[in-house]
Amino acid sequence: MFVQEEKIFAGNVLRLHICASDGAEWLEEATEDTSVEQLKERCLKHCAHGSLEDPKSVTHHKLIHAASERVLSDTRTISEENIQDQDVLLLIKKRAPSPLPKMADVSAEEKVDPR
After folding, report:
1. CATH of the domain at 77
2. Which residues form a coiled coil (predicted)?
């Protein structure tokens, strides 16, 4: 009988319900030692049907624990974030940062303000 090494030493496998902002829902399995970033990458591959054309895509999304309404930290593991079996996670695209003011606008504001 052949058994894969990672299956022998894997932590508890959690079944997580993932809901994307486009309405897609699926079940994702992950071990307790899986990082949130790794889970997010797998979720994005599921949404993008196997290809992550933009490598920044991972940083443009966040996972939210639905029950506690908190954003999960990419650097922590699932167990560190206290995620339990059958929990619901939301995959949300982050808001785009507001654009920085143009230098022409900044210099115009400085001329108006006579301090």
Report:
1. 3.10.20.90
2. none
Domain contains 109: no
Task: Write the pLDDT tens digit of every residue in 51-83.
Answer: 555 656 778 899 999 999 999 999 999 999 999
| Domain tally, the chain | 1
What region, left, alpha or beta, does residue 111 occupy, with left being phi > 0 and alpha being psi -120 to 50 degrees?
A: alpha
The rounded distance, in Å, linking the Cα atoms of 19 and 114 is 53
Token duo for residue 12: 């508890």
Q: What is the DSSP letter of 33?
A: T
Enter the pTM of the model. 0.70
Q: Give the chain's length.
A: 115
